[in-house]
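P.,

For your records, the input lines for the assembly:
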Amino acid sequence: MMIRRYDYGSPIFTHAIAIPQPVCTDEMPRFTVEKNGESVSFRVQMDEDDQIFGLGESVRGMNKRGHRYRAWCSDDFSHTEDKASLYASHNLVIFSGKSGVFGLYVDDPGAVTFDLGYTRGDEAVITSENGNCSAYYIEADSLIGAVKEFRHIIGRSYLPPKWGLGYIQSRWGYTTEEDLREVAKNHRERHIPIDMLSMDIDYMEDFKDFTWDAKKFPDLKAMIADFKADNLRVVPIIDAGVKLCPGDPTYDEGVEKGYFVKKEDGSTFVGAVWPGKAVFPDFMRDEVRQWFGDKYHGMLEAGVEAFWNDMNEPAIFYSEEGLEDAYAKADEMRGKNIGVYDYFALKDAFTGMSNSMADYTRFYHDVDGQRIRHDKMHNLYGAMMTKAGAQGMKSFNPDKRHLLFSRASFIGAHRDGGVWQGDNFSWWSHILLNMRELAGMNMCGFLYTGADLGGFGQNTTEDLLQRWLQLGVFTPLMRNHAALGTRDQEIYRFRNWEQMRDTLTVRYALIPFLYSELVKAAMKDDMLFRPLAFDYPADKRACRVEDQIMLAGSCMLAPVYEQNARGRYVYLPEDMLMIRFRSAEDYDCIPMTKGDHWIDLAMNEFPLFVKKGQVIPLAKGAECVAQVDAVKLTLLGWLEHGTAFTLYDDDGESTAIDLDKGLTLVDVQVKDGDITAKAEGIALDTSRIILG
Amino acid sequence: MMIRRYDYGSPIFTHAIAIPQPVCTDEMPRFTVEKNGESVSFRVQMDEDDQIFGLGESVRGMNKRGHRYRAWCSDDFSHTEDKASLYASHNLVIFSGKSGVFGLYVDDPGAVTFDLGYTRGDEAVITSENGNCSAYYIEADSLIGAVKEFRHIIGRSYLPPKWGLGYIQSRWGYTTEEDLREVAKNHRERHIPIDMLSMDIDYMEDFKDFTWDAKKFPDLKAMIADFKADNLRVVPIIDAGVKLCPGDPTYDEGVEKGYFVKKEDGSTFVGAVWPGKAVFPDFMRDEVRQWFGDKYHGMLEAGVEAFWNDMNEPAIFYSEEGLEDAYAKADEMRGKNIGVYDYFALKDAFTGMSNSMADYTRFYHDVDGQRIRHDKMHNLYGAMMTKAGAQGMKSFNPDKRHLLFSRASFIGAHRDGGVWQGDNFSWWSHILLNMRELAGMNMCGFLYTGADLGGFGQNTTEDLLQRWLQLGVFTPLMRNHAALGTRDQEIYRFRNWEQMRDTLTVRYALIPFLYSELVKAAMKDDMLFRPLAFDYPADKRACRVEDQIMLAGSCMLAPVYEQNARGRYVYLPEDMLMIRFRSAEDYDCIPMTKGDHWIDLAMNEFPLFVKKGQVIPLAKGAECVAQVDAVKLTLLGWLEHGTAFTLYDDDGESTAIDLDKGLTLVDVQVKDGDITAKAEGIALDTSRIILG
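Structure tokens returned:
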């Protein structure tokens, strides 16, 4: 077990590493280091069956081999399998195979490419394009060992309050207080569990950060209080770009203090986002983060307890300069009989101006008095906005955990907040992507994560939403979110809403278990979700499973992700109990032996597999987290002998988390065919445990 | 068994139906017919487990339930699962479930939507948007019965010459004679089997139809003759749009004769495609098809024997009118501080002008003296271009089968040529799409079909190409094709090219079998590829299999379509022999029992399943179709008793196909553990047959 740091060029401090490592000057093991102009590359040969894990939020399999990725935080909603970049940059890769387990973390906030068997199937080449980076070589006895080692040096993962595990209903398009109240009512009336309503850009006044439209929300404070009384919280969005709007305090203060990023000539950079022309806080600076974080206090004072940070790659729809270039192109073409290549160039001038490299090279950050061009540290921007928000929330309420999740991220931000998996689509393939990203993101420290259930872009269908919720039941961040212009996708909109409600009851019944496992994973630098390769490294079949995932130490998930399917194949690397859920009260417990199985799963059924010899606790369903009864639990499992596990619980919100204090031992004894279980302060029902 | 025709509005004659049916005046069975303004809808309730098949070339599963499709031939390369429309319009749906098997074919060349359990999960609504259509209600005892009944009235499917089953190497970017010779040489030198080189737009002079660039191809005739001597044929592309180019004979003749589509004011419609400004032959007119078809003669005289028709949805990148509107939008926005919604509108003005409804409503067709606006019969345009090409090739060489395949299609075109599955991407998910579309297209009569192996757009990888070729081995049209700007994807470019070559040897060894089954399928209105639901309707599991497909009457395919996989699950609806191919000479024969199996498949291995009790013939590998030895065959199968099958063969090119004459009975006898097999004129090796 070791981590060795090697520096190249002039590394930029990223906050990723929490425990600084000494710089090594010997040769990096295994990798050939090559310098080409500015860039520095790390090359390694691979055996035919070697696998690669990591890269957090990224497309394709959990085994990342066979594609070329590029760390470059991108506002790109079309997560097709060709994409090199999504919203996040998580520069960790871990190799596993014939010659053992080793990994590389490239701490570089600029672009880093990962050619993982793309150019040559038998070779991986990782390149820091600017050549300024700290590269951490990792070696371990196991995949999970490598992850824990890495997670140790990047510091403890963010933990949300317990109510952060509640179901969130969201939509770009909830415009008024009435909209929110209507959504809340429709859930509560039907007893569809829910804890939060998230508010997209519609709530703001002209898309100005830290404002709300007083016409649409005449008494925000009262609304929030009403919701709170009903165990509901609102989660407003905060965008990275600040509207260019003299008179708006955020804008005015930022201008006055010189807090917005500037161009080479010292003038403020202007790019357009939702508010039209906007300016961008230089989150790389301590004092700017402090200031921006403090801006959250206004809404916190109104009773808001949770936020999501968006558009923080940063997304830039266009700049004046980009627009001028496009107009110039149009002038050039006008009146000419333009051929298709000219026409494509014209079209590209108008489409290519969004999130363009031209804009990302137009402005600069101040880093400890040094001026660094944005593109050299682009991938850090969102993470630093998250840090700002986290600081602001912490300073407002130092003793309580804050709820915050972000779109863009960089390793380091895993200490400050959660991450949702960005603007996905209502595609069946995105159920699987959702699941696979859980594993990658857990490796990189992001535990509070999940995808937009039902899909953000495009139109959902009732079967898609139903199957997706069946995975969402297990993801710490559980949000149904959809884009403006797409089909309504609140559960109650659909013919089969009762089945979906029943699915949600399972989520709430699992909260004592999920909360316990989430906290333990964070405190122990562990993963909540692991590829099977991590738990069964000697099992060749298990190592290549891409549509199942381990949950905590005891369970395995195998979601249905195919339209019109009524079941699926599942590979059990050991004997397991299948709990086939229909609701928190209605489920089958079926012992299954190690090996391959087809399992029937009606539209309203979904499985959770529990390793033989282990038990998990299930509460009764509830309509909000606060009402989950964590002291009356049913144990589910398949046992030959006694077993035991620890269950963590606490007040759900204090920042002082003490594992030793919060853990309760659940002791299950089997004697002469009788099962008894004991845990201090918890009433346990063992009647569903299967012996054999 | 019955087909009943119902007419609504003023149906436009589409050539789809080859055997005219009488018009019924009673109520259509099962469907509720609703008129709303212009449109006419057909509504039917569905049971929870009912399935829907059909729709030919379209996204998602073979079971089409759960999505909203729209028949609208579209030049859209991004075949994501949300897409309602691809290049073709194949308006057949067949329902199968509790209340039996029935279907609907909407013979309407305008837009038709198929809401198949999208708006409501338990309801299908099919809508002719213009309300002018003949709707054919189909009822049958079985899915295959419904297909055969429908296929009977739409007429016999196109059959290519036998060499059309050869491997085609293609690329947008083979610019010169040297390029083609180089590609040919690289295949032949390495003994990679190949029969054709297809030529994309690069070969033309300024993208003018029926020209070739004399600088790049100084002696086309000699080149073609050289290739022919090496058993290679070239397949030039023909585009629908004719360059607006006074002096070019195609343009001049068309203008003189008034053959191009016109706007309302009688002026010729001008839209831009590859050549820049272009005009569009009115393929709806007999005399225009005759004229355009005759234009193929020039290249046929130079020795060309095969063509592909492209851009015939028709694709229109922009029109002058569309461009002016976009410029006007730019003028309107210029200088203003535009908000994001304005900005989106500006961007849309430039991106939305391609294949726009605005352009499709700008021009008209002459149909029997009647002027019909293009959008009312849009979906017929490509089919009529195919008809033109087919007529031209037939008139040049009436006794020989022609090789022609098209991008856009409508039912009816299945009699005139093949169809490739359009501009797909180098995505793993497109292997599966490729397979599923085979089934849908076969239902609609298109037998000579296949997808661009390795993927057209985006960059391929060696593993993707390898796995895709393993499916392509079985598709009648077998072409490796890639777009300009993407990675080179000829087999010989890759480290593991020898494995891919070995894969191709299996294709050639299977040609006697595939050719026989293709011809039989066409002559008997049968499908070459069928969903398992068609062959095992009583097997609930089989009915929902979406990643396996039946091939002919005896076989089943189960391709690997997952990156980094080393095997896959397969469901056997009955006992089958797995032939696990590595090459035509190297394969395992493994008897497997009915049920679920995991099968190991190394990167160079792929399975073909043969039903127990049946045998299939395998020739030796060959480097071109002409060299396939069809009279020395090895029989593969798993037998308890004797069996027999018929093998069709002929000269491979004459148009007079006589099943009775061409069929040879292969009689396999099993007696006392000995196997003997006889077939007139064929030497049979039975040593690989497994008894038991």
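Two observations worth noting. Chain A has 16 helices and 43 strands. The two ends of chain A are 39 Å apart (CA to CA).

Regards
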